[in-house]
Amino acid sequence: MKVINIHKRVLNQPVSKIGELLDTLATNNDKMLATDKWPPMRLDKGLQVGSKGGHGSIRYFVTAYNPEKSITFQFDLKGFNGFHRFNITELGTNQTELLHVIDMNTTGTATLKWVLAIRWLHDAYIEDAFDKVENLFTEDKKTSKWNLWVRFLRQVMKPKKK
Predict the structure, then answer these.
(1) Which residues have C-beta within 8 Å of that of residue 129, sequence separation ≥ 6?
(2) What is the predicted pLDDT for the residue at 157?
(3) Which 3 state secondary structure label does DSSP give 16?
(4) Is the confidence at residue 162, as pLDDT, over 70?
(5) Strand 52-55 relative to strand 58-66: parallel, antiparallel, unpaired?
(6) pLDDT per residue as tens digits for the range 111-161
(7) What angle do the packed helices 119-135 and 148-157 form, to 10 degrees?
(8) Is 7:120 a contact under the CB 8 Å cutoff?
(9) For the chain, what are the domain ranges?
(10) pTM for the full model?
(11) Per-residue pLDDT at 5
(12) 2-157 has which fold?
């Protein structure tokens, strides 16, 4: 199945401010991803081409990195053939677009996983990340609401306590 999944947010900040945040991905001071709500991104060699890692059970490796501008990850999961990317684009002096794109083809059970669970969780994950970025620059805090399906999936997929 062909999948194109696009999230974008326009932020009233200069491109340099948002670019600085991109460069914190997969660090202990990640200012891009909502690590208080979701598994953090981990990369074995940090933000550089060839670095391997992921978040939770989603695996990928870095295929392109342009500091403060973009990063592209190739999926490393059976049945998920494609990439996901963050792009930062200057729209004006104090206006920047933050973009996340998935462009992939799924096959076999990966298609079911995408349709039934991963798509929904991914959409919530990215919107929470964009909220985190936006909230760094505003007093009027943004909080995207998870739909019932996302709340259900998170409940049933929660690790068992010992």
Answers:
(1) 32, 33, 34, 100
(2) 85
(3) helix
(4) no
(5) antiparallel
(6) 999 999 999 999 999 999 999 999 999 999 999 999 999 999 999 987 766
(7) 100
(8) no
(9) 2-157
(10) 0.94
(11) 98
(12) Alpha-D-Glucose-1,6-Bisphosphate; Chain A, domain 4 (3.30.530)
d(CA 26, CA 18): 16
- Band of pLDDT at residue 7, cut at 50, 70 and 90: very high
Tokens of 3: 């999948």
Return d(Cα 123, Cα 53) in angstroms, integer.
Answer: 20
Supply the pLDDT for residue 160: 67
Q: Residue 99 — φ and ψ, nearest 5°?
A: -125, 135
Return the sign of the alpha-carbon dihedral for residues 126, 127, 131, 134.
Answer: positive
Identify residue 100 by its one-letter amino acid code.
H
Distance CA 2, CA 156 (A): 27
Beta partners for 42?
Answer: 54
DSSP labels for 63-77?
Answer: EEEETTTEEEEEE-B
* Distance in angstroms (rounded) separating the CA atoms of residues 116 and 113: 5
Retrieve residue 160's tokens.
Answer: 């068992």
User: Which residues does residue 95 pair with via DSSP β-bridges, in sequence order?
Assistant: 92
Q: Mind listing the pLDDT tens digit for each residue in 74-98?
A: 999 999 999 999 999 999 999 999 9
